[in-house]
């Protein structure tokens, strides 16, 4: 199997995110983001790590884009740090920040790499968080100001856009479970944040459509096949609830279907108290592609003691299923099935895999990282994607997560997902064997 098996127009890229790679978090006029402040709270991030230097991409972007090219990819996905453009989230602009993304885009174009921008990849300006962040009604007008600015400023040069990265990811981890920034808890926070995020997602799409000529607009959903632990009706129903929350909750409003409330009274109550038919219309946008990001399936068992969802994950290691160093099950067949689940909606025109990848323990031996497990992971996942494509599913691209080891949110710098190893003390990059594997795969 080689890249040519996917057709000549297929997009191959690597995905990254501003807070995970840029560094220069407190300089060049950038305002603090919620990850800068969250990482100062004791015990929130492993080993007390913080994103202030990350991969120092801010200073090293020409070499890093050259690495994208060396590996043979033709797309570089990166995000814009909102607080680098608007230090307090709206109003006053930071010209240095605006210039920085021009430089990154120009460098991509100069090196023959297509830039793909994510508008929001989790690093909300701290100043907006103080006003309630995604739970506050006012967030939508601020987001729209930011989206409009970026579309007008960069839209002549950048045609590929992703509005929001994993709405379920950051609203659940950040506003319900408190393990990601801004560290809030509670179902009500989550539902408030979810509604505003679903609106922002569609608003962003509409703004890009209006401002950017010939734009290719998508948004990126986390997705996981949800498998009931047993065939008992309790496990099956619990699995359905998790599926509604993790896979359907943000996708279906985008497709004009409203929130998936039919099978679950909790969601129905939320929808009645939070959203109206007006919201339903506003949350809809006809995206050019639906981004899917898959890292694991989930096996779900009914559990009456878990509030709201009454479901519990049976972890891969307890089932003796193969898993990554993150504990996430490696299961390429489930990747194939979740692609099919997302593609089955008649409103979905095509799918782009906007993230997929794995953290395995990497060991630098004699200047080399022999990450065979990661190579096998990509081989299996790409074969599964090819099977789906050959069955007629319109898949237009695949972006590997990620170019280089970086700041992996609450895991700090320990969890290495890169195709390129990064020594965080010296910022020296070393291409892993998986990177060379990609180079070979993409050359044919
Ligand atoms: C996120 C990335 C993250 C990756 C691995 C995705 O959910 O979009 O930012 O690094 O998962 O955890």
TrEMBL record:
Belongs to the glycosyl hydrolase 1 family. It is an enzyme of class 3 (hydrolase). The active site is at 166 (proton donor), 355 (nucleophile). GO terms for biological process: cellulose catabolic process. Its EC number is 3.2.1.21. Keywords: Carbohydrate metabolism, Cellulose degradation, Glycosidase, Hydrolase, Polysaccharide degradation. One of its GO terms (cellular component) is cytosol. The keyword Hydrolase applies. It catalyses: Hydrolysis of terminal, non-reducing beta-D-glucosyl residues with release of beta-D-glucose. Substrate binds at residues 20, 121, 165, 295, 401, 408-409. Pfam families: Glyco_hydro_1. InterPro entries: GH, Glyco_hydro_1, Glyco_hydro_1_beta-glucosidase. GO terms for molecular function: beta-glucosidase activity. This is Beta-glucosidase.
């Amino acid at each position: 199997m080689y890249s040519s098996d996917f057709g000549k127009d297929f997009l191959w890229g690597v995905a990254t995110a501003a807070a995970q790679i840029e560094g220069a978090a407190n300089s060049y006029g950038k305002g603090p983001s919620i990850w800068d402040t969250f990482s100062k709270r004791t015990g929130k991030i492993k080993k007390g790590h913080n994103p202030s230097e990350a991969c120092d991409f801010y200073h090293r972007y020409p070499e890093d884009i050259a690495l994208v090219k060396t590996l043979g990819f033709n797309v570089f996905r990166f995000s814009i740090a909102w607080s680098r453009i608007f230090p307090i989230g709206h109003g006053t602009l930071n010209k240095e920040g605006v210039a920085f993304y021009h430089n990154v885009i120009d460098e991509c174009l100069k090196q023959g790499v297509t830039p793909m921008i994510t508008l929001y990849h989790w690093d909300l300006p701290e100043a907006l968080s103080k006003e309630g962040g995604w739970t506050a009604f006012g967030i939508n007008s601020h987001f729209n100001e930011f989206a409009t600015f970026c579309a007008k400023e960069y839209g002549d040069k950048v045609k590929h856009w992703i509005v929001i990265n994993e709405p379920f990811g950051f609203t659940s981890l950040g506003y319900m479970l408190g393990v990601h920034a801004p560290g809030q808890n509670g179902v009500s926070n989550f539902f408030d944040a979810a509604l505003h995020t679903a609106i922002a997602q569609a608003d962003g799409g509409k703004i890009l459509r209006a401002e950017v000529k010939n734009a290719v607009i998508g948004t990126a959903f986390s997705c996981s096949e949800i498998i009931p632990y047993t065939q008992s009706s309790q496990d099956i129903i619990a699995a359905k609830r998790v599926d509604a929350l993790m896979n359907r909750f943000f996708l279906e409003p985008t497709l004009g279907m409203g929130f998936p409330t039919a099978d679950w009274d909790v969601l129905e109550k939320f929808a009645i108290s939070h959203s109206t038919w007006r919201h339903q219309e506003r949350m809809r946008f006809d995206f050019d592609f639906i981004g899917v990001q898959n890292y694991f399936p989930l096996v779900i068992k009914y559990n009456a003691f878990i509030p709201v969802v009454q479901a519990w994950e049976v972890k891969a290691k307890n089932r003796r299923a193969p898993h990554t160093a993150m504990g996430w099950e490696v299961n390429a067949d489930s990747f194939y099935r979740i692609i099919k689940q997302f593609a089955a909606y008649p409103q979905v025109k095509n799918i782009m895999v906007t993230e997929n990848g794995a953290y395995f323990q990497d060991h630098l031996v004699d200047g080399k990282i022999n990450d065979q497990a990661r190579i096998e992971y990509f081989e299996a996942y790409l074969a599964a994607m090819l099977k789906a494509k050959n069955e007629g599913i319109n898949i237009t691209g695949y972006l590997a997560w990620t170019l280089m080891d970086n700041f992996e949110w609450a895991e700090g710098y320990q969890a290495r997902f890169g195709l390129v190893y990064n020594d965080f003390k010296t910022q020296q990059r070393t291409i892993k064997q998986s990177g060379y594997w990609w180079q070979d795969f993409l050359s044919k």
